[in-house]
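Subject: Re: docking follow-up (zinc ion)

Dear J.,

Thanks for your patience while I sorted out the input files. As discussed at Tuesday's group meeting, I've set up the holo structure prediction with zinc ion included as the bound ligand rather than trying to dock it afterwards. The sequence and the ligand SMILES I used are pasted below, so you can double-check that they match what you have on your end before we go further.
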Amino acid sequence: MKRLIPMLLILSLPSFSFANGNSEESYFVKIPAKNAVERTKIASYGIAIEEILSDYIFGTAPLDLIEAVKDKFPGMDFYPVSSVLDFPKEDERYHNFEEILQFYSTISQNNPQIIKVVEIGRSLEDRPIHAILITDFANEGEEEKEPAILFLGTHHAREHLSTEVPIYLTEKLIEGYGTNQRITDLINHREIWIIPLVNPDGTIFDTDGGRYKSWRKNRSQNYDGSSGVDLNRNYGYMWGKEGSSGNPRSETYRGPAAWSEPEVVSIREFVLNHTNISILLTYHTYSELILYPWGYTYDPIADQRAQAVFVEMANKMAAMTNYTPMPGSDLYLVSGETCDWAWGERGIFGFTFELYPIRWGREGFYPGDEIIPTVGALNLEPALYLIDLADDPYRAISKNIFDPLAKSGLEIPLNVESIF
Ligand SMILES: [Zn+2]
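The structure tokens for the complex came back this morning:
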């Protein structure tokens, strides 16, 4: 894959033109905005907000959309996403699509006692979408259906690190089976489902042709000739409300109808067919945030006990990662996204992780591959914490909990009352 040219280098080469006449190509935008209401206004015009600072946001949008809305946002700044160079030979740890398929094949052949990879659906361009199941098959059938958890990666094409983190999680679970007591116990008593790549078509498009395109959506062909639906605005719960766009050229185009896109239908059908799933974690990049419902409304979840579970889990995982926890709508309203649907329709505790980096800097969606093990390792502990709680998420707020930071594993329950 390729590396981003540092932004400073680009800015120092003013005669170097990156505009190629393709009005669908993404541009970066910087728009003054001080609060969630102002940010929601920006999002409602179809600009994908990627980073929030105290006085403004960074986002992306195609040039023709920017031209159409720039009068609405005084002080708006925009510039093209930079061109990229190839990754150097020693720097190719990002998995392209073929390498992901090879990974599935290798892990299932080498670990048949705990790994099964199944195709759960096809993308719009007819590529397979796979789920990895990690559980102890030898014990299958000895007890009733085990509690299950689902990890999702890369709804948004350019967020390549959000595929690498669930792949890293898979590798560490395999390595830990039989060598790490805590991981062995979790695999023996849980069904761990991992779908590293929800949007194969968009991801291939983003990396095809020798340069990144900063592509976010899938590759649906829209009625106006533009391409792509935002898969994280196409889920059927509260679809079409504020926090998504009806403009097909927009980065946050919700699609012509709820569930119009085969990629999210695959996820829906998978979840409906696995009623033992109690917790879901969907990885995105970037900003280093831990988000939970609601996205579509500023209101908190009505069920106060469930709300307390969301807050407690998010706070615990924030302590493990130094990411910032909050309801998604604290950023800006989002409708038709994964976790609102998971909770609103299925009662599944859903979290969105916005991974590294915390700021755009020189990297944004395209950090070098040397960061993969660091970000993967940082995100291992929250994953194990959630896998543990999949049998009863309400255990997160019960008096007798396992201390996830103690790293002592399932075998040593920590009684909070004995501390205070
Ligand atoms: Zn995303």
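A couple of observations from a first look. DSSP finds twelve helices and 16 strands in the chain. The pocket of zinc ion is lined by residues 155-156, 159, 232, 284 (CB under 6 Å).

Let me know if you'd like me to rerun anything.

Best regards,
T.
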